[in-house]
């Protein structure tokens, strides 16, 4: 399995052109990559033209804002569910599957920023829900917070294969999720179900034994007790993949889990894959390099902004 670079997730958005254009490192536009010819496959408004109209300046980047915590719920030992009041525009922007924000304790510096997926959006009442599993230094820093959080967003590259989700209509979809990766799955499931797709779900509750999907979606949970790393778990998946005739498969779990399951998917043709982006995302703006992965030619890809395609 190799990976290939696809579109910049921010191309054509209100955050494009960005710092990368000013630094001659645009992901999409060759002219903004120190070349003197046009060779992009971007079908939206020309990024170079936009940059020219802006007098060779980037658009304003995302800013931090302090938002109120409307509700803080503890689930089990180490999971917190926050309901956050957001401006209306931000709630609308975060409805896209794959959306995430950075959250931070307001008393700490920017390097405590934590990328966290959006689980649910209520656009009428302007709030979002996120689920945070407490692990190490960054997540410990927000564990006792119950009044406000600093947030930065919207960001959209929390899933790879977004194109498959956006095109899906009347499809049979299988969601395979483990642990807290159920959170980004929920936004994607509700999006697919609004577009008339059928969604079956296999949940491995993971070490935290959480089952969020039943609570936040109307999807059909077909299994929720298997360990997906076990032979029994893999056998169960093969059976469903064979019997279910799925056209779209979503895997929400660590890169290690994804690698394990990709080997199974190789035996099935025509499966469109959607995967959670589990890279170490730090700035989210394509600058710091924390999220870099390499394509087959060893060229670095900044996965916080770039959609990645997995090839057999
Ligand atoms: C796009 C995106 C969306 C995300 N969405 C969510 C979300 O919705 N909810 C959520 O909870 N998280 C989410 N994450 C992950 C979250 O950002 C990280 O868990 C968080 O940044 C970890 O920071 P930390 O300093 O608390 O933990 P770190 O210390 O950096 O730990 C990171 C990972 O290492 C593991 N780890 C740490 N210490 C040990 C150890 N001693 N032994 C074995 N393993 C260990 C942890 O289990 C964890 O998986 C998302 C990440 C990305 C990139
Ligand atoms: S997270 Fe900084 S470049 Fe991607």
Number of helices: 9
Helix content: 10-25%
User: Uncertain runs with pLDDT below 50, 5 residues or more?
Assistant: none
Number of domains: 3
CATH topology of the largest domain: Rossmann fold
Binned strand content: 25-35%
> How many beta strands in the DSSP annotation?
17
Succession of helices and strands: EHHEEHEEEEHEEHEHEHEHEHEEEE
CATH superfamily of the largest domain: NAD(P)-binding Rossmann-like Domain
Q: What is the CATH class of the largest domain?
A: Alpha Beta
The assigned structural class equals alpha+beta
> How can the largest sheet be summarized?
7 strands, antiparallel
The ligands found in this model are: flavin-adenine dinucleotide, FE2/S2 (inorganic) cluster
Mean residue pLDDT: 95
* The CATH architecture of the largest domain: 3-Layer(aba) Sandwich
List the helices and strands and how they pair.
Blueprint: E1 2-8, H1 19-22, H2 47-53, E2 64-75, E3 79-85, H3 88-93, E4 100-104, E5 114-117, E6 120-122, E7 127-133, H4 137-140, E8 148-155, E9 159-160, H5 162-167, E10 172-178, H6 182-194, E11 198-204, H7 213-216, E12 220-223, H8 231-244, E13 248-252, H9 255-265, E14 272-276, E15 292-294, E16 300-302, E17 306-311
Parallel strand pairs: 10-11, 10-13, 11-12, 13-14
Antiparallel strand pairs: 1-17, 2-3, 2-8, 3-7, 4-5, 4-8, 6-7, 9-14, 15-16
Residues 100, 114-117, 130-133, 135-139, 158, 180, 183, 277-279, 281 line the site of flavin-adenine dinucleotide.
